[in-house]
Amino acid sequence: MFREIEGYEHYLVSSWGKVYSIEAARQIHGSGERVFELTTRKLHELATEETPKGYLRVYLYKDGKRKHHKVHRLVAHAFIPNPENKGQINHKDGNKKNNSVTNLEWVTDEENKLHRKQILTKENADDV
């Protein structure tokens, strides 16, 4: 599933954690008195880069200015309701590169810290 990125009319985010730019091309076909306009759209997956903390981000352009956005935040804002207005997004499996909507949830700072501790405890137990 795709959703438009709020504030960026030429970009889409998918529920599986990919970000795309939309390239629109208009073609005018004339036939006597009749004129047809055909709009085609092409999607281009944006390249991601890893932040120093291990999150994936993309660059979006608006009004000639470039701004980076973390992919997990774009997915959560587009697909996950946040009625309690929680400020952070948790990767349920602990993998910061897994930005699928099924792996993300809104959390408080305390909930995020507790989850991180549980993931680290599990990883250390798996190493034994």
Can you describe this structure?
The chain is an alpha+beta fold and 128 residues long. The protein has one domain: Homing Intron 3 (I-Ppo) Encoded Endonuclease, Chain A. It has two helices and nine strands; from the N terminus they run βββββββαββα. It has helices at 71-79, 109-127; strands spanning 2-5, 8-14, 19-31, 34-45, 49-50, 56-62, 65-70, 88-91, 104-107. The strands form three sheets. It has a four-stranded antiparallel beta sheet with strand order 1-2-3-4. It has a three-stranded antiparallel beta sheet with strand order 5-6-7. The longest helix is centred in the last third of the chain and has 19 residues, at 109-127. It is elongated and about 70 Å long. The termini are far apart. The model has no long low-confidence stretch (mean pLDDT 89).
